[in-house]
Structures are given as C-alpha cells and as structure tokens.
Amino acid sequence: MIIQLEQDILPGQLAEVQRELEARGYASTEVKTQSQHYLVGVGKKPVDIRQIGTLPGIRDIHRVSDGYKLVSKKWRVHDTILDLGDDIKIGSGHFQIMAGPCSIESEEQVSAVVDHLVANKVKIMRGGVYKPRSSPYSFRGLGQDGLKMFHRLCREQGIRIITEVMMVEQIGEMHDYVDIFQVGARNAQNFNLLDALGEVDKPVLLKRGMSGTIEELLQGAEYVFSHGNEKIMLCERGIRTYESAYRNTMDINAIAMLKKMTHLPVIADPSHGIGIRAFVEPIALASVMAGADGVIMEVHQTPEKAASDGQQTLNFVEATDAYRRIRAARALWEEF
Amino acid sequence: MIIQLEQDILPGQLAEVQRELEARGYASTEVKTQSQHYLVGVGKKPVDIRQIGTLPGIRDIHRVSDGYKLVSKKWRVHDTILDLGDDIKIGSGHFQIMAGPCSIESEEQVSAVVDHLVANKVKIMRGGVYKPRSSPYSFRGLGQDGLKMFHRLCREQGIRIITEVMMVEQIGEMHDYVDIFQVGARNAQNFNLLDALGEVDKPVLLKRGMSGTIEELLQGAEYVFSHGNEKIMLCERGIRTYESAYRNTMDINAIAMLKKMTHLPVIADPSHGIGIRAFVEPIALASVMAGADGVIMEVHQTPEKAASDGQQTLNFVEATDAYRRIRAARALWEEF
Amino acid sequence: MIIQLEQDILPGQLAEVQRELEARGYASTEVKTQSQHYLVGVGKKPVDIRQIGTLPGIRDIHRVSDGYKLVSKKWRVHDTILDLGDDIKIGSGHFQIMAGPCSIESEEQVSAVVDHLVANKVKIMRGGVYKPRSSPYSFRGLGQDGLKMFHRLCREQGIRIITEVMMVEQIGEMHDYVDIFQVGARNAQNFNLLDALGEVDKPVLLKRGMSGTIEELLQGAEYVFSHGNEKIMLCERGIRTYESAYRNTMDINAIAMLKKMTHLPVIADPSHGIGIRAFVEPIALASVMAGADGVIMEVHQTPEKAASDGQQTLNFVEATDAYRRIRAARALWEEF
Amino acid sequence: MIIQLEQDILPGQLAEVQRELEARGYASTEVKTQSQHYLVGVGKKPVDIRQIGTLPGIRDIHRVSDGYKLVSKKWRVHDTILDLGDDIKIGSGHFQIMAGPCSIESEEQVSAVVDHLVANKVKIMRGGVYKPRSSPYSFRGLGQDGLKMFHRLCREQGIRIITEVMMVEQIGEMHDYVDIFQVGARNAQNFNLLDALGEVDKPVLLKRGMSGTIEELLQGAEYVFSHGNEKIMLCERGIRTYESAYRNTMDINAIAMLKKMTHLPVIADPSHGIGIRAFVEPIALASVMAGADGVIMEVHQTPEKAASDGQQTLNFVEATDAYRRIRAARALWEEF
Question: Are B249 and A253 in contact (CB under 8 A)?
C-alpha cells in the first residue's frame, strides 16, 4: 500500500495514519524523496483503503500488492522523467543514447570520444573510473583523478556523465563530478550501496544482476526510492544462460516486461548484453522495438587498443551508423 | 570441406575424388539434394584444397571447418530462398508472417482464421494436428483427419500450411497435405526424424531445442540437408533460463547470430518465445529488427476458449495491429 | 485419481465406473499393465472418492492431484522393484551398478569389459549400438549386428544388457537382445517412442532431458506406464547451466527429490553428469548418499582410444576402486 | 607465477626481483599475509623460472597460469588449515559442522541453540545479525547489539561464531565479536568488501555468487588472499538454474572440482543449496562424499516460527540425526 502524504502534513496527523495502519496489521515506512512524502504499508490482511484514505494529511492512497511498491506502475499516473538539464531528459517519451568507452584512459581518449558524441548529438557519455574486475591483478581504473578529468572535458561541451560507483565511500567524492551514478551488475544486490544512493539527489542507473530476476531488479530500485531518491532507471545488460555463443544472453523480454511493471525508464545495454561487436547494433535496434527508453553503448576510437575489453566496442564509424538506425527505429516505434 | 560436384560427374570421377580425400585423411559423405550434388569431407589435417579442386567433375570446393558444413554461410554466395509457389517466398529478402491457432479444433475455427489471414494478406497458416503434450492424458490433436480438413479449407483460399510432424511414420501420410513440416523443440535432436525429413522434397522448419545451443540447431539442420533436403528454415522459440517471469526466454541474440552463421532463413516465434499475450507483439518487432526472415504467431478468434493454451495467443484485433507494425518494422529494416 | 481395478472386473462394471467418473467431470483412461488394471481419472472438481470406491470391480482408489499419476509415490505402498532374473533386482532396497563403454566397438572390447564386470560382480553392462550424435558425419554405432554380438557375449556370462533405443522401428528388432531399453536425454520428450515402449514387457530407463524438469521426467515415465509398462527407472544425467567448468551440471538434488515423489527406482549417471573422468567417482558416491538405487558408469579398457568420447570414461583400475567405494557408501546409507 | 620470498629479504633484493620480472614482461604484486611474503607475477610470455629462482631473497618459485594464483593448489604442498583455537580446525583432514538459525532473534533463541550445539559437539554457530533482504521493508537483523549478545552467549560455552558482514564499515565494529566473517552470495563480487577483508586477521567464508562460476569464486578468494589474509574458505550454496522444484540447485560438482583446484577448505551449505527442509540431510551427506571439509546448516528450535525463512531449517531432532549421519559419512570418506 502506498500513501501519498500532503507536503504540509502535521506530525500528529502522520502518527495517526501510522496508528491506523498498525491497527490493521500493517507495518509502515516513511519515505521522503526530492518531490514527495509517502508512507509505504506492508501487510497481509485485506484492508479497505477508503477507511484510511479519508484521514487528514493524505493526498492519495493506492493498493500495491507486489513485492516492490514505490517503483510499481500501478499507482503512478505518469511514467518517471529524469531531467539532466538543457532539455536532456530520459523516460516517458524521452529517449537517450549514452555512449563511450569501457574505461576512461586518458585526456586524448576522452576528448576524441567527446568530439564524436558532439558530432552525433549524443548527450551522455559513459566511461568507468572505478572498474569491477574479476582478478585483483587487473587494471582497476583511473579513480577519482580520472573522473575529474572526464568531468572537465565533458562539461566544456555540455556532455553529461554516467559512471559506475562501487562502494558507499566513493559516493561523496564522486558526487559533484557525476550526472548519473551507475550501479553495476555485481553490485545489483549490494543493499548498503543502494541505501546510500537513496540519499543522493542524482539519477541512478541500476543494472540487472548477472542472473538477477526482474523482481530483484525492481526491489533493488525500491531500496533506492524508499531511501529518498526517485531518480532511477533500470538497465538490462544480459543474463547468464547455458548458451556460450555470446558473452551474456541479452534478455529483451525483460525490457518489454519492465515497461509494463514500472514507471521508471528502462535502458538497454547491448554491448554487455551480447558482448560481440558485430551484434551490438541489431540488439540495440531490437531493444528499441521492445520499448527501451535509451541505449548505453561502448564506443572507442580504436577498440582494438582499448584498456578494457574492446571486443564489444564499436569504433566511431560503426557507432555513427548505429546511432542513425537506432533513432530511425525509435521514430517508427513512436508512431505505433 | 564442401565439394560441389558437376551434375554429370561420372562414377569413376566421383570415386577418384573420394580416394584423394581419403588419402588426405578425410572421410567423405555424398549428398544429393533437390538441386545439387555434393561431397562433404570431414577430417582434421590441413589440406590444400586447390590440389583437389582441379579434379574432373568438381565445380567448386570450399573450406568449412565448423561442426556444421552445408548449412554454413561460408560457402554459399546467396542466402537460401524457400519458394512455396504463387510468389510466396521466405529468405534472402523475402519476409513472411505465419499465423494461426496452437491446435486445429474444427472447421468453424479454421474457416474463421483463414478469413482473417486472407483479409490481412497473411499467406501461411500454422496449426497443430499432432500435439506434443507433457501429459499423456492431454488432448493430442485431431490427427490426420484434422489435417485433411485444415488442408481443404486453406487450399480454397491459397493459404499455405505449416504443421508439426512428430514421428517418421507420420511423414508419408501427412506429405500431400502439408506445405512446411515443422519439427518441434522436443524433437530438435530426434535424429531419425531429421534423417527422414531429409528425404522429403518439402520445406522443413526446425525449432531450437528447449535448451538447444545455436550449434546444435545448425547441426540439426545439417542432418536434414545431408540427407538430401536443402529446404530448411530455423526457428528461435525461447530457451530455458532461471527467469520465471515468462514461459521461455526469447533469445533474440540467436536471431542476429544465426543470420551471420547460416544461409538458411531464420524465423521468430514470439508466442512460445515469451509465452505471454501482451508481449508477443513487442518481441515480434524486436525479432524483425534483429534480422528475422519471418515471424510465426498464435492467433485465435477467441484465445480464452482455445483447445490448447491460449495464454500466448492474440485475438484477431490484436493480430491485425501486430501484422501492420511488424511489416512497418520490416520495411524500415530493409532500408538500413 | 487412480482406481485400481479387480482383475476380474466385468465390462459392465468398468463402464459403470467410467460413467460415474464422467458424471463428476472426470475423463478416464484405462491402463492395463503387466500386473494390474487401472483407471486414471483426470479432472478438476473435488470428488469424494468414497462414493466411487464402493462400486463393484474396484479394489482401491487414491487421490493423486499431481500432473503425473501412476508413477507418483502417493498411492503405492511399496516402491517398484525391477527384476531382471537370477536375483538381479533394482529398486526398493536393491542397488545395482551398470557399467560399460559409451559405444560397442568390437568383440575384443566387449569381452574385455564383460570379464572386468564379472570379476567385479557387476551384473549389468551398458553400451550403445545406436548412438545419437550431434553431427550427421559422426560414427552412429554398430547397429543391430553389434547388438547381437553384445548380447551373445553377455549372455554367456549372465550379464544383463542396457542399451539405447532411438526410434519406434528399432524396438521390435532390438527386443530379444536387450534387458533394459534406455531412452536418451535427447528423446526424453519423444512421446511416440515413450508410447511404444509402454507396450513392451521389458524395463525402460528414462534419462532426464538436457534441461528437463523433474516434473517432465515423471510425466515421461507416465507415458510409458499409462501405455501398459510398469517397469521403469528414472535417470539423472546432468542438466545444462551457465557453468562451463563441467560438461553438464549433475543435479543431485533431483535424486533426493525424485525418491520422495515416485515409487520408481532412480539411477545416477555421473559419467555424463559431470563429464570429467576425475570426478566420476566422487559424484557417484554423492549420488548414493542422496538415495540413488543404482549408478550407471562408463568404463573402457583404454578410455583414450574409445570410439566415442572417452573423457568421462574410467579405466578398469579406476572403476574397480569406484565399485568398492560405491558399495561401501551404499552399505552405510542402508544403515541410516 | 608465485614467488615465495624469504621473510628477511632486503628491500634492494626485492626491487631486484621486481626489475627482473618487469624485464620479462611481468607485472608484479607484493603480498604480505599473516604467515608469508609473496610476489605474484602476471604476464603472458613464457619465462624460465629457474633464471629468477636463484636470485637472493627468494625461497621458492612456482608457475601458475590460471586466472587465480595464490589460492591455486598448484604451488602449495599442503592444503590450508584454519585454526580457530581449542583444536577447532577446518581443512586438510579437519571437518567441521556449523549450525544455527538464519537470523539471530533473541537471547532465548541463541541459548537454546547453543545448548543444542554443545550437546551435539558442534563447535561453530551460524546466525545473521545483518541480513541481506530482497525487500527494503523486510527485517534486516538485530545488528551490532545482536552480535554482542550472540558473542557473549557463545563464548560462555566455547562456541565459535560465523556471521555475515555486508559492508566495509561493519568490519571494524564486528571484528572482536566474530570468529569467521561470512561473505554472502550477493556480495560475492563486492570487490571492495573482499579487499577490506584481506586486511583482517580472521577467517573469511566466501559464498559462491547466485550464478557465480567456480573461477569467479576462486578469484574472489584471490582478492582476499592478495590483500594479506590467507584464512579463507569457500562455500557452495546452490546456483540458479531453470529448475524451479527447489530454491537453488546445489552444485555438488563444484565441491568435487574445487577440492582439486585449490588448497582452501570447501564448505557445503545444503540449507540454501536446495532450500527444502526434507532434503537438507541427503544433500549434506552427498556433499561430504564429494569431499567437503565442512557443512553449514540452518537449525532452529521451532523452524515454523523463525524470524527469517524457516522452510529450509531443521529442528533439533532432525539436526541431531543429521549430525550423526554426516559424521558417519565423513568417517567412511576418510577411509577411502
């Protein structure tokens, strides 16, 4: 059950609502986000919500019986729009391409990608400075210094930044240099990190776990939302299956399904999703047709020489073709 | 190694080629199909194919080192086109929608679907008369009588028929009433059935196994081709994964990949692929963008009352919308 | 619902029972096996079975609401025992090791294995004469001639034979030379083959499909049983997962669970289950502790030279050690 | 490559070794653990290790070409033994049962379990005070206060404690109250947490990820080891597959295989592994036969009333039987 509270609800009124919930066997959690004030009620017995809905201080009340609540589509009239400024928006009809290298490597590299993005009217650049690596002996990214350089070069051209955060301690120092915090597949159920990102007023892109269910992805988002941050998008990035012909099995079913289950934007990551350069574009196009609100892609001036795995990375020529086709597919999808 | 032989090769010439292969450690299999005559050589040592290619009776020779040979794209200049007559073609630029119920139930049902297909310019009707069912106590289809009725009603309107064959013994009696033999996921590695369908001069649609690899699907097709039948299409119908939110996980990656690996047409089955009515259309559209040469869909006048599972079946109104959008997506894809 | 009928039930009495079932919305299937006469009722409404149970000609009646009926443990007082003669029994406390090569290759090979089995008091030899192979160009077994030789050499020493049958047409010619018909993983849902094996009076070992569920395995057995053959055992042989460190992921959970769900014997196939020679023994031991009624293993005098894949095959020394430990583990398990 | 250094190696000698490695294209990482001093060399070119091995300050040098190094079995003569004091040891022939509730709930609960463990000579108690929960609205454990109570009650009876740590910040406050830090499946690739646990001088039990590969599990352990902590055990707790008959699919293959790949102890978690109470014991027995060095099980005085999921939890009577059989199976295994 989700109760939308009036912004000027009095403490006594709030306590009264909580008492009424408790009397009906419902535990309640108070949630204050950037834009609203909620009570989330969790319980099992059927309740006539009209009895509670008339209490003072309540704006609206909704029955949501799923494991996830605030991120459910059932109670929100409109889909979420994430606004990054300068008319760069994601969700509810607004589509964005995000592109860039796996890892931030150097000024030369970032500059080249930024120029490529500007030339192609792509507004958001991806690039890792903290890299989760299977082996402790691998390159783990340029860290905070790399992020500052990344930020400086993007700001000059109005490009927004999405980059991965791996631990609670990094959030503070990264905050001012990041436009979207990305949570990687390996941290999809790092609940402390999700809690902490719930206290930040910046968008968060949550990747589905290596073998995360759709329900788990939504519950991960619920962690962020219920700690106060409504600015969330979800990202399908391929799952583990028995098929070894591709790196991961991009699950386009999940995109179609998430669009019916949640009001949050859904992003497709075909680069990790299939993990093979030649198939990034067709999988991106397929994702658009399944309803994705955006695509995040790996692009590098020389994929063969990329610091991190370049096998799934497009060069500028391939990427330019892909952007054009992705936009054409999106335009057709909007006509439907 | 694939050796294309001249149609008028003399027995002595053929024996000479086989001897030369054997001398190089290659076992050879002779394959005669509707249109060509081949030797398939299987061996491990590197061979200079030019030494063999100049022998009399050989038209062309190609190195194909994959587990599958004749179905590989490596040696064929053009993709396969399946011609069902009256300009109904599949593959190499020709796209077809196939639609119809899970099971053939009655004349009324078939007539209604046929009218719906004619009205929507769909040329091929699907419908099962032999149904593989998990439980021995379930309805197993109308059998041969149902097929004859199905055939009669389709022929009147020029509609082609695709239906599942489950065992070698059925092939003979079904032959004259079928335009495309379908092999279901459960028989994807029923090698005796594949052998027998290799001796038929009708197209065969091979579904991927429940958890079949792409390689296994291609090798299944190799069984059919190497027994003499070049008229094959492959069908992605969803795989088994840990995700239980949908019936199967439609693997759109496979469509994109198969199109690079084989010259055979690739068909998408979104109805079984995701198994939920609301998502059949977006998954069909996604499949088209990944390069599918056709879509096979379940359609029924009253899905709620279908004899077999109607949960994944569109009604006529939904289907009509879906056809239109699928064709629009295909038209865009052809522009790329 | 399972109704055990009296052997001397009169046709009129049977018809009466069927009418009563129908009146309650239950479809009924008559099943006559080697030892009993049943009606299987399938319906959805709750029925007071006592009302039917008193009709003349009924011996007993049981509620079984699962998708599988006759193979369920719910109605059988005792677990099934398969009796191969000479006190060679499987199930309900009787444990058997079955061992032998992947493929039958030659008289020398069979003789050597038979001697090895006799020396180790193993009573049942495995060995394929019809081999399901991914590629149409691979060796597909010695066929019927190989089977006759296999049979002759085993008979002389009192060894029983288990071998794979791949198609309905093979059953007749194989029948007199086989003690246990094996259905391979690829044919686990070849329902016509299962139907036909239901009409044979020889034990059938059913392997779980590549990615078959436990429920599907039981329903496969239900096909055989409901066509008249009660002599069935089930075999866990590994499933497909994302883990590529082994060939298949032996699912020992399934053994423990099947033992609670069905009265049929459950056999473990560690050779295919994990597919790596060094781990066949520990997985066999683990299977015994999970309750397996038998183990089927690949053994060859020179695994390195085996005609079919020898990577999972033990040599005689390794096998001899394994038998001893398997029996010790079984002896301990029986004490529990 | 692993280079074991002399404890009294001089800085100049160390620098010389690093220079020689670099000259051969090898990056080196210095690792100082509780007991030893290493250089781990990572590179691709073949090197004659004898050329380096004779440099002053080197005790021994080993070629290890796997993705994981220090945790590999290839270079260690003896398997790792974890010593918890009072002759409570794990690994290399020492077997331990760890048992206790999913969550620590109350003094009464802990006392009852402690008494049960003492009566059964179980030396290590499990119990969560920080619980990773899919939903943010679920009970997340008693936290640090619960841990102190848990510790106090166990210490009185000489019982050791294993409990889950979820984030870097918790390590410090938990340190003095914990005998074994457990890293849960959801944090299996939380590399920052692994790094931090590498700086602690307490044993760490690493659970395999929900769909983690064996290689990833070993690389997770490599993170801990390479940051200085050699006291690690690995834990198989079931993986995600398509089979929904059990909660997870306990992968006993992994136990057998890990025992050949690493010198670290391997623990089986049948409670989470299969997730169904009736099958915890057979899966535990199977794990012992596959070579596990210990079993971790959920036990509760009243599983039906457990704060966290009690569906996989044994009561004291069931557990007492299970301990006895597990020890008997282990005794047999040691005879082999």
Answer: yes
Kindly report, residue by residue over D51-98, the tens digit of the pLDDT. Answer: 889 999 999 999 998 889 999 999 998 999 999 999 999 999 999 999
Count CA atoms closer than 13 A to C157's CA, side-chain side.
23
Whether A309 has a pLDDT exceeding 80, the answer reads no
Nearest to B230 by CA among B79, B18, B64, B93: B79
Q: Indicate yes or no: CB of D134 within 8 angstroms of CB of A216.
A: yes
- Chain A residue numbers with beta carbons less than 8 Å from the beta carbon of D193 are 167
Place of tokens 């055992």: C233
| DSSP of C227-257 | TT---EEEEE--B--S--SSSSB--HHHHHH
C25, HSE (Cβ side, Cα atoms, 13 Å)? 6
- The overall average pLDDT reported for chain D is 96
Alpha-helix residue ranges (DSSP H) falling in chain B: 11-23, 49-53, 107-119, 143-155, 168-174, 191-197, 214-226, 252-261, 270-274, 277-289, 316-335
A291 lies within 8 A of chain B by CB: yes
Residues B192, B167, C205, C123: is their CA dihedral positive or negative?
negative
> Cβ atoms within 10 A of the Cβ of D46, count?
9
Alpha helices by DSSP H, chain D: 11-23, 49-53, 107-119, 143-155, 168-174, 191-197, 214-226, 252-261, 270-274, 280-289, 316-335
pLDDT tens-digit map of A113-172? 999 999 999 999 999 999 988 889 988 899 999 999 999 999 999 999 999 999 999 999
CB nearest A283 (choices: B243, B252, B273): B252
If you ran DSSP here, which 8-state letter would residue D6 be given?
Answer: P
C58-62: strand order across its sheet: C27-32, C37-42, C2-5, C58-62
Closest-CA residue to D144 (of D97, D111, D104): D104
The residues with which C4 forms a beta bridge, in sequence order, are: C38, C60
Counted across chains B and C, CB pairs separated by less than 8 A come out at 91
With beta carbons less than 8 A apart as the criterion, state whether B76 and B232 touch. Answer: no
Rounded to two decimals, the pTM is 0.96
Q: How many residues does chain B have?
A: 336
Contacts of C158 (CB under 8 A, 6+ apart): C86, C123
Report the amino acid identity of residue B90: I
Q: How far apart are CA B177 and CA B159, in angstroms?
A: 12
Which residue does chain A place closest to B277, by CA atoms?
A: A257
How many whole angstroms separate alpha carbon C115 and alpha carbon C121? 10
For residue D160, give the DSSP letter. Answer: E
Q: What domains lie within chain C, and their CATH numbers? A: 2-62 (3.30.70), 82-335 (3.20.20.70)
φ/ψ region of D42 (left if φ > 0, alpha if ψ in -120 to 50, else beta) reads: beta
CA distance D120 to D140: 30
Three-class secondary structure of residue A324 per DSSP: helix
Predicted confidence at residue C308, as pLDDT, reads 79
Measured CA to CA, the distance from residue D242 to residue C322 in angstroms comes to 31
Helices (H), D70-124: 107-119
Asked if C328 and D328 come within 8 Å (Cβ–Cβ), the reply is: no
Mean pLDDT of chain A: 96
Q: What distance in Å separates the CA atoms of residue C98 and residue D52, rounded to the nearest whole number?
A: 52
Q: Are D234 and D90 in contact (CB under 8 A)?
A: no
Question: Pick from A118, A116, A120: which is nearest to A108 by CA?
Answer: A116
- Write down the ipTM of this complex: 0.95
Tell me how far apart the alpha carbons of residues B201 and B191 are, in angstroms, rounded to a whole number.
18
**Residue B275 and residue B238 in contact, taking contact as beta carbons nearer than 8 Å:** yes
Q: What is the pLDDT of residue B50?
A: 85
Which residues are CB-neighbours of C302 under 8 A, at least 6 positions away? C310, C315
- Closest CA–CA distance from residue A282 to any residue of chain B (Å): 5
